[in-house]
């Protein structure tokens, strides 16, 4: 059983961030509490989106609020089992990620997308998004596929950003060597066990 209050944002290279998440099969009280906790964490860390695997859960689910304003009902959205069904145009823009704090780089994304998903009531919905909200959804969608934004950096951004990512890896691996952070095998086993 997952205790929503205990969830925390995991940092790269935590194995959950490279895990291909599994579809959500049940929307229940526990899942609603998990989502509530995710919103709290997202606002606490001043983010505009958060995927379930960023809190160590291998679920195809993410939350967004491109306005960044807590309680903005227009933009506070939960996307369960999302699918991006259409993409148009390409635009480059800067991105960051709560799982690699303070690291920012440019990524090319589709300018306009259509995304289908389910909400917390189990109702299906479709959104057509442009510009920044479209970017946020594409970034979060990549998370549930195990893809990080720095996998897709523009050539110009790579030189600057990848060494910063490397520092996160070094820090994490030395924590594992000291036994302060669980091994990847151990975490992967846990992730498998909590798949929906
Ligand atoms: Zn991210």
Structural overview:
The protein has 196 residues and is an alpha+beta fold. The protein has a single domain (4-193), classed as Peptide deformylase (Peptide Deformylase). It is 32% helix and 24% strand. It has helices spanning 29-44, 131-144, 155-177, 184-193; strands at residues 49-51, 61-64, 77-95, 105-118, 124-130. It has a five-stranded antiparallel sheet with strand order 1-2-3-4-5. β4 and β5 form a beta hairpin. The longest helix has 23 residues, at 155-177. The protein starts with 28 loop residues before the first helix and ends with a helix. The model has no long low-confidence stretch (mean pLDDT 96). The site of zinc ion has 5 residues, from α2.
Share in helix: 25-40%
End-to-end Cα distance:
11 Å
CATH names the topology as Peptide Deformylase
The description of the largest β-sheet is:
5 strands, antiparallel
CATH class: Alpha Beta
Say which CATH homologous superfamily is assigned.
Answer: Peptide deformylase
Shape: globular
- Global structural class: alpha+beta
In the CATH hierarchy, what is the architecture at level 2?
Answer: Alpha-Beta Complex
Number of separate domains: 1
